[in-house]
Amino acid sequence: MPTKTLQIPTADGQADAFAVFPDGGERHPGVLLYPDALGIRPVLKEMARQLAEHGYYVLVPNIFYRHGPAPVVELPEYIGEEARPTVIAQLMPMIQAHTAERALRDADAYLTFLTAQPEVSAGPVATIGYCMGAVSAMRTATAHPDKVAAVAGFHPGPLVTDAPDSPHHRFPELTAQVHLGLAEGDMSPEALTELNQALDTAGVGYTTEVYPGTVHGFTMSDTEAFNPAALQHHWDCLLPLLDRTLANR
């Protein structure tokens, strides 16, 4: 299956990215996949390949490109309990610098680039994300309702906060169908109720689900949070969402 390392022009420079898509010279619906805070690494590339096998062109940007090409910090093959504090301490300044304003500027560039690729078919795309990438996926979908037909987030970062730029404030702009797969403890019951109410008000088709027996990061097989059954359930929810929303399958 063809893979490419790409450079995406942005308002702030060049974002390196990984892309994978089916062979055969045909065009395929585009999927913008935002990684978790640990960034582009072998497990993310493998997940992108699995998704591409179902008929999609998958673009995975390095969201921390302002700090250097991926991997922006050296990551162990397995990020267990001992390694995690050091890794997160290195990443935290980059996470904090990745503001909503930056995420929205980048979303413009990523979507423009994705939809211009010769292997990507005309029509809407999907945005999906993990951890903080789920927040970016949702911001992208609300900022570009004419381009994004599906948005999915797994063990998402904060979608409901007291901040003026909380993602849920822009849900009324959504037109995409939504699936959010939460780990136990990702959101308080009150925040989840507010999230669902905001999606109800938006009038979009959506599902929000707390995946039982999970902790934050459950899709990532290179971390101690990994839950194989929850990863499979994530595919079982994600693939039908993409199948019913993206054209030219």
UniProtKB/TrEMBL annotation:
Record-linked Pfam families: DLH
Domain annotation Dienelactone hydrolase: ranges: 16-243
Gene Ontology MF term list: hydrolase activity
Keyword Hydrolase: yes
Keywords: Hydrolase
Classification via SUPFAM superfamilies: alpha/beta-Hydrolases
InterPro entries from the UniProt entry: AB_hydrolase_fold (IPR029058), Dienelactn_hydro (IPR002925), Dienelactone_hydrolase-like (IPR051049)
Protein name (database record): Dienelactone hydrolase family protein
Organism annotation: Streptomyces kasugaensis
